[in-house]
């Protein structure tokens, strides 16, 4: 039995942070960062059956072309992903009344839809990027036993090629779900490694008033390569989503609409159009599943 202090429930029996009961979520779930983006996706739904919000965690569940889908905002950062994925797993794989794990476990399909800037000159604005791997620079997942799901060859190559200061913690690399990769991929989608930072400023190489540990890290990431995989973009959630999903037995995939290209200095003339196209492309793939 899982103690009350370990799995915290609200008075109505819902999980503490997400404010959800098991019947409130579908098995196909789309993650967004910003709570205001939830309705940018559910505006395409035929109907919405449930909606709730607590703090930055907003959830709407509805029907798109006959498919039941949930859309959820996670907020920013790996620490929020730790909350969201663990509580989603509790909703489907723990009996919230007896507080015991279920014998028959459920695998959720989790797809993150975001926006990002490309690090590579040949990945143009308005294109889509699929994260073949998430490369965690944040340390959150190191609180768990991850050796069985992490790719240590990529980790070793990254540490060596970037002269990574191990005092910041060892990076971790996790692959996306092969099932969702096959469902979503097309010849129009670029694939690569998405680096996940634990912060927005120093951890992503931005300098305001504080000096950072490695001023050359971004350029090192631009040139990093492992076999046919490059680092395509840098954000704050993907590796954590991949790691927790792999550990808990869920399928996870991260997609980004590229609205800027840092190498060429270009920005999309209509970023909203690019995002809407990625949303409808993903929804149609899920609905056809």
Automatic annotation (TrEMBL):
MF terms in GO: purine-nucleoside phosphorylase activity; uridine phosphorylase activity
Name this polypeptide is given: Uridine phosphorylase
EC numbers, comma separated: 2.4.2.3
A GO BP entry: purine nucleoside catabolic process
Entry GO terms, CC: cytosol
Catalytic activity: uridine + phosphate = alpha-D-ribose 1-phosphate + uracil
One Pfam family of this chain: PNP_UDP_1
Domain (Nucleoside phosphorylase) ranges: 29-265
């Amino acid at each position: 039995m899982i103690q009350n202090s370990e799995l915290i429930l609200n008075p109505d029996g819902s999980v503490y942070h997400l404010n959800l009961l098991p019947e409130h979520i579908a098995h196909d779930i789309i993650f967004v960062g910003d709570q205001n983006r939830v309705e940018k996706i559910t505006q395409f739904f035929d109907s919405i059956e449930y909606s709730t919000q607590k703090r930055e965690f907003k959830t709407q569940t509805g029907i798109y072309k006959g498919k039941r889908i949930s859309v959820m905002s996670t907020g920013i950062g790996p620490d929020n992903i730790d909350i969201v994925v663990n509580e989603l797993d509790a909703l489907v794989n723990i009996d919230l009344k007896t507080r015991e794990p279920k014998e028959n476990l459920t695998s959720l399909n989790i797809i993150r839809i975001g926006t990002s800037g490309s690090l590579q000159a040949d990945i143009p604005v308005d294109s889509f990027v699929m994260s073949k791997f998430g490369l965690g620079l944040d340390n959150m997942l190191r609180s768990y036993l991850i050796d069985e799901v992490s790719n240590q060859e990529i980790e070793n190559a990254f540490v060596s090629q970037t002269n990574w200061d191990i005092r910041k913690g060892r990076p971790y690399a996790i692959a996306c779900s092969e099932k969702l990769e096959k469902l979503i991929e097309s010849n129009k989608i670029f694939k690569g490694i998405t680096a996940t930072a634990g912060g927005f400023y120093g951890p992503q190489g931005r300098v305001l008033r504080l000096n950072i540990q490695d001023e050359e890290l971004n350029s090192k990431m631009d040139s990093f390569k492992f076999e046919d995989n490059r680092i395509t973009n840098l954000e704050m959630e993907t590796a954590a989503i991949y790691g927790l999903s792999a550990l808990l037995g869920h399928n996870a995939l991260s997609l980004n609409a590229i609205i800027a290209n840092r190498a060429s200095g270009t920005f999309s003339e209509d970023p909203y159009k690019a995002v809407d196209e990625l949303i409808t492309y993903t929804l149609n793939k899920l609905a056809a599943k």
